[in-house]
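tool_call: predict_structure(chain=1)
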Amino acid sequence: MKNQNENGKGASVKNKKTYFYVALGLAAILLAAAIIITSVALAGRNQPTLQVPSDNTQQTPNEDEPVQTPPDEDDEPVIVTPVGFANPVATMSVMNGYGFYHNATINQYYAHLGVDFTAEAGAEVYAVQAGTVEEVYTSDVLIGTRIVIDHGDGVKSVYEFVEAREGLKAGDTVARGEVIATVAEATGNEYKDGAHLHFEILENGQKADPSKYLTLEEK
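tool_result:
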C-alpha cells in the first residue's frame, strides 16, 4: 500500500513538471512571436513612403516663368491688316460700314454688304492688291461705274461710284496701289450720302466684311 501511494505521488509530480515545461515552452514561443511581429511593424513604420505623382497633381509654376493670364472675353479683337493689301483711298474714313444700314436716298433699311469711304469727287482710287481687271461696268445708273479686280485664291475687290481710269479695261493687270479710278460725283442709289467710294470684298463669289483685309477708321 505504501509503495502504491508513493508511486502515485511520483507520477503526479512528474505530470505537473511536464505541464509546466510545456506551458513554459508555449509562453516562450508566444513571446518570441510577439517580438518578431513588433519588430516587423516598427521596421515598416520607419520605411519612407514613395510618393508617385499622379496626372492630376498640380505643379507649382516656376517663378522665373511668366504666368499666362487667360484672355478677357470682353476685350475687342484687334484688326490687323493682312500683309500686301493697300488702302483703296488715301483717307480711310468710314461713312457707312458693313452691316445694317439706312439708305437715306431710297429711305430703306437693308444689309450693306460693303464699306463706304468718305472722299471728295476726283480723289484717286487705288487697287488694294495686284490682280487682273475682271470687269469695268459703266451701264448701271444706280451704282455708277463698277470695277472688279481678281486677286486670285477666290478673292476679288469691287469699286463702285467711281470714274474708271482712261483706257482701263477687262483683262488688264494692275499692281498693288496702282491708280485705277477716281471718285465720281454723288449719283445713283446713294447720292444723298455725297461723293464716296463704295468698296466690297468677294470671297469665292460671296460678299465678305472688308475689315478682314483693311484697317478701318470710323468717321
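agent: The CA atoms of residues 42 and 188 lie 99 Å apart. Proceeding to next step.
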